[in-house]
Structures are given as structure tokens and as C-alpha cells.
Amino acid sequence: MSTAVPGPAVRDVSVFGDAIAYFNEAATLLNLDPGMRAILTHPSRQIIFSIPFQRDNGQLEVYTGYRVQYNFARGPAKGGIRFHPGVTLDEVTALAFWMTWKCAVVDLPFGGGKGGVTCDPSTLSMSEIERITRRYAAELSEVIGPDKDVPAPDVNTTPQHMAWIMDTYSMHMRQTIPGVVTGKPLEIGGSRGRVEATGRGVSIVALDEMARLGIDPRGAKIVVQGFGNVGSIAAKMFAEHGCTVIGISDVSGAYVNENGIDVANAIAFAQEHGSLDGFRGGDHMSNQAMLEVPCDVLVPAALEKVLTVDNAARVKTKLIVEGANGPTTPEADRIFAQNGIVVIPDIVANAGGVTVSYFEWVQDRTGWFWRESEVNDRLRDQLIENFDVLRGIAQQRGVTYRTAAYMVAIDRVVKTLKLRGVYA
Ligand code: NAD
User: Fold this and answer.
1) Ligand 1: residues within 6 Å at CB?
2) Distance (Å, whole) CA 324 – CA 306
3) Which of 18, 161, 265, 394 yields a CA-CA distance of 20 to 30 A from 185?
4) Is 114 annotated in the active site?
5) What whole-number distance in Å separates Cα of residue 217 and Cα of residue 296?
6) Each residue of 81-102: pLDDT tens digit?
7) In what order do the strands lie in the sheet with 221-225?
8) Which pTM value belongs to this model?
9) Which atom of ligand 1 lies at the shortest distance from residue 323's CA?
10) CA of 232 to the centre of ligand 1 (A)
């Protein structure tokens, strides 16, 4: 039987409360006992701290920092750090919760974590951002580390932020410890293939599922929403496999060409102009309209909640591959299931990034750095092996890939918890 989860963090209105909905569905199918449910719906540790920093004009200000270490059963916590005005404890907790399942479903030896600073980086100079980042790392120096919690970039944080965190942490520990963060620049212990890993992972699982569905990549019509790190790389990989990318989009709108967009040209255009604004390789339309263009594969790779009850019934595709985190609402998910549209959920589809982060952590700890082809081959193996596991569960139990993914992830975390025993 399900137990109500106590505590103020699980209010109906909270992001964390929403996140728990998918967990509960899978937990019920697994007959998870109330004690395990209670443990897994409570974060292990939530840290809130003040970040005093000096403005370039000498004035002192204080921002708030967060780190949530949701679960350690399978290994050190793992997850990004975001700098954004909307960062709250509730949001960071939900993101750390998702990371727990994402790491488990692709079988990485990590728990889940996430962090952030409530700030608007567009109002800060680079040196102000550096001071905030270093103070953030210093405040957490006792609770992060290669065997404790391994942060990475997220919204508005980059390899440069990771370099500052690695340096600050190493200064406190009096030795160079590159494995404290992933997503670092190559020169200081980053991994080859990390930048492309998420988009590459999207295309790996998509092409694998297309083969199962009998969709020939040659000529398959692909639509990709978002043309940043994830979307542009995914589009490039699809084109390299002979697919016809008929739609791409970014914040400037969507560009659709039934004969195929020249993806390499679009990437060069976006790099030169900062966005696709003014791109002439396709007819301009709204992002919303592009989501309804008939295609074989639709890849939302921009924002959360873009496929909703308002447009789901008009989406004409065979396969949705969630490059972004949380692009589909639960109501839209049900409509897709009814309409026979297969959805590869975010925790699997965009797990390529965290998988290569794991490879980076392994390389840092051994001091042995792999060729890019080795990284890419291992990424493919890790994703496909685990996608096959959840595909088996989906078939056996007659559930969607999303439910199967949560079932596999929860089962793995519960098994480790039971083997280790609860120190209670
Ligand atoms: P990014 O900032 O590089 O790119 C985001 C893209 O979305 C940009 O092209 C932007 O113009 C576009 N965009 C913004 N608002 C839009 C709108 N209203 N309509 C259409 N497009 C819009 O970000 P990213 O790293 O590519 O991340 C995209 C998504 O993938 C996010 O949900 C992120 O959480 C998720 N994700 C990223 C990674 C990673 O390794 N980068 C890993 C896992 C998940």
C-alpha cells in the first residue's frame, strides 16, 4: 500500500511534489514497501548557505546557495550546479531526485545531487561570478569530493565554473583533485567527447528505437526543438546517419524545410550569429507550430513542459525522444500512449552527458585519458545495454518506457539499499 509522504517538501504545488508522481506510479507497480518509499521520497541532505561576495565596486552582498544530496546508496551524489534567479530549495531537491533515477537507470555508480545559487548572472561581471563560484565551493568543501559528491555544469554554469571549483577545492585540500567535478576543460582533466555526449546519446537511443519500429534512418524525417548543446549535436548526428532533419528551432523561432535542412550550415550560422535568427535554410514558423509538423521522430531539446494537454493530440510523430528535462507533462504523456506514440523519457534519452561525466571521473581518478572513439564506444554500450533492460521490462509489464525506466532505477537503488542495510 502506498503511504502518504510526510513533510512540507511534498506539497501539491511543489516541483518536488510533481516529480514524485512518476516515482509513485512505478513504486506501486514494484510493490515497494512503505519504509523504502519513505526513505526514497526524502532527500538525504539539503544544505542552504549564505554566499557573501564583493561587487567590483567594493560593495558587499549576500546570495543564497543550495546543494541537495538526494541519495548516496549507489555512490557519491552527482548532479549539476545552476545559477539562476528561479533557484529554490524545492527546485534543487526535485532536480537531485531526478538525478538519482537518471544515474541508476543507466547503471552509473552514483547517487543523485544538484545545486544552485539564486542569482541573475546577466547582472554580474565575470570576476563577480568567479568570486561567487569560489565561495560556493569553499562553503561545500567538506561535503563534496570524488567520493562524496561530484558537481557538474547546469543552467548558466560552464567548464570555466568547474575549473574554478576544482581549483578552490584543491587549494583547500592542498593537492590537485580533478575528480571533484566533471564537465571541466580538457586541459585540467576533462574528458574527450563530453561536450557532444548528451546530443550523441539522444541520437544513439533514437536510432536504436527507430530500428525496432522499422523506421529506416535514410530519409526518416526528424524535428528538433532547441539548437543549443543538445539539439544541435543531436541534429548533426541524425544527419550523419542519413536522416532528413526537416525542422530545427531556437529562441528566435522555428525553421522548416521538407527537403531537409543543411544542419552543418545551420550550426555554422548559429555560431556566427549567436542564434538562428535570420537563417534562410527553411520556412520560418513558431516553435509551437513546428511541434505539430508531421515527422517520424520529434526531439524536444529546449525547455520543460512544451508538450502539454493543449497540443499533444495534434502531435503527428511516431517517436518522441526527450533531449530536454521534463518536456512532456503527465497529461500529454497519457495522450501519446493512447495515440501509439513511443516516448523515450528524459532520464534515459539525455543520460549521455552524465554517462560521459562518469567516464571523466574514472579518467581523473586513474590519470589515464581515453581516445574520443573509446569514449563514444563506451557511451553507446552503456546506453544501449541499459535501454535494452528497460525495454524488456516495458514489454513484460505492458508499461511505457517512462514507467519502465523508473521501475528499473528504483529497483536498482532499493537492491543496493537492502544489501547495504539501513543504518537505523
Ligand atoms: P543550451 O542553452 O545550450 O540550448 C538551449 C536551446 O534552446 C537554445 O538553442 C535556445 O535558443 C533554445 N530555446 C530557448 N528557449 C526556447 C523556446 N522558447 N523555444 C525553442 N527553443 C528555445 O541548453 P542545452 O545544454 O542544449 O540544454 C537543453 C535541454 O537539455 C535542457 O532541458 C537541459 O536541462 C537538458 N539537458 C542538457 C544536458 C547537457 O549536457 N547540456 C544534459 C541533460 C539534459
Assistant:
1) 198, 225-231, 249-251, 287, 301-303, 323-325, 350, 353
2) 10
3) 265
4) yes
5) 10
6) 999 999 999 999 999 999 999 9
7) 283-285, 253-256, 244-250, 221-225, 297-300, 319-321, 342-344
8) 0.95
9) 30
10) 10
